[in-house]
Amino acid sequence: MILHLQLESANQYMGSMEEPSPETNYTKPLGIRFIEYIKRSNISYKTHQVIVLIVTFIAYASYHAARKTTSVVKSTLDPASDEVSLNSLPWRRRPFSWILGDGWAPFDGSDGTVLLGEIDVAFLAVYAIGMYFSGHLGDRINLRIFLTIGMVGTGVFTSLFGIGYWGSIHSFYYYLAVQMLAGLFQSTGWPSVVAVVGNWFGKKKRGLIMGIWNAHTSVGNITGSLVGSALLQYGWGWSFVVPGLMIATIGLVVFLFLPVTPESVGVSEEDESDSPKKSGAEVTAPLLISSRAEVKDQPVGFIEAWKIPGVAPFALCLFFSKLVAYTFLYWLPFYISHTAIDGQYLSDAAAGNLSTLFDVGGVLGGILAGHISDRLDARAITAASFMYCAIPALFFYRSYGSISLTANVILMFITGMFVNGPYALITTAVSADLGTHSSLRGNSRALATVTAIIDGTGSVGAAIGPLLTGYISAKSWSAVFTMLMGAALIAGLLLTRLVVAEVTAKIEESRSRRGSTSRSQPAVIDV
Question: Residues near 64 by Cβ (< 8 Å), separated by ≥ 6?
């Protein structure tokens, strides 16, 4: 009798291992279950991949749309032209108020630019610190719920900034506190979306796929610029409230439709050549299967993630790369509206619309950087080359961008391509590569942590760049561009060791290929 019960329990145990538990259906997002109910069949692995790309693309585009509005509204809050001098006396600024607007206290004073810079750095400092914690949490909790909370929270505090318009709030500390809390919720976005995409896509063509996917950054910036600029005529508060409502709504879409991992929705990836387990970071299938049970509940620690080869150099490179990129993100519309182009100043709305061309160039740069790095199989060489090319692009944009509108458009596009190219590559394909590095033995629970370390470090630079610009631009925009060129140079130099390693590997590979070719040729016998 006892033997019979033991055999029966053993059979039940084996059966539970062979057949998926019906409870796994309840881990599927409601939207996925609804689609399957309508189709009356399960969604394929490829379809899940498409859903992941679309949902995460829209989600992070909404993050950047909400973030971009601050730069568009700056010229309305602080209308003082640097041609008039930000430190000039009030009676010297008043004649220009009919062109630039009267501003909004407390940002309409002589120190308005500095105050706006301090708000930017507070936002980005909290964002950078929050990024480290978000990555740590993202590897330990449900990313779908985590991302939804972050998006709804971002929407709430972005809207609260705009509510200051109708509430006639003129307290600097109100806007400072709201932006800091918005930065905290914004930090949930990037580690989450990169981790989810990394769970569904392997290393094959990862650079190209993520280069195209990373266009969400520029699409979000463009959307934020266009929406913010269009709504300025109704009151600058709308430029915050509408993007805030957009990201909160899209957060609900994420909750309903985002599948975090193949396991969470019960799809099979055995026949999919593009799955992470087949084309992942130099790991064999048996190792992944045998180690999953061991590492599933043991996410990689913060210090261990820093020790992964390549994480530190790319993280430091991104520090300076994002310093350049985010200076443009936060100050480009302000710079355009306060710089005479062909002898004329553009309106705030026109400057915001024109600045979108920088992001259009960034889309092309991200795709090119991803494609080139895939073809060369050399992430560091590609990123460093783009950073070095950004130096003359920045110089020419500052020197000749004011000659005519056409010259400004062309040079801005080229600058955006070289500035955003390496930024896009490092934050996507490189982060995903390092998050599935061979030293991790197939542990996918490191993706969010590694992504957070790299982008979190970059975000520190993103905070410093706009802050320094707020102070330096009050004296000279040429000095700002000198700072940006120096940052681009340092970013490229930080990858020197990795570049040398990749070049050496390419030379060795070329020599071994030539050697194998010569040995395979048949000997020719003269008669």
Answer: 216, 217, 219, 220, 221, 223, 224
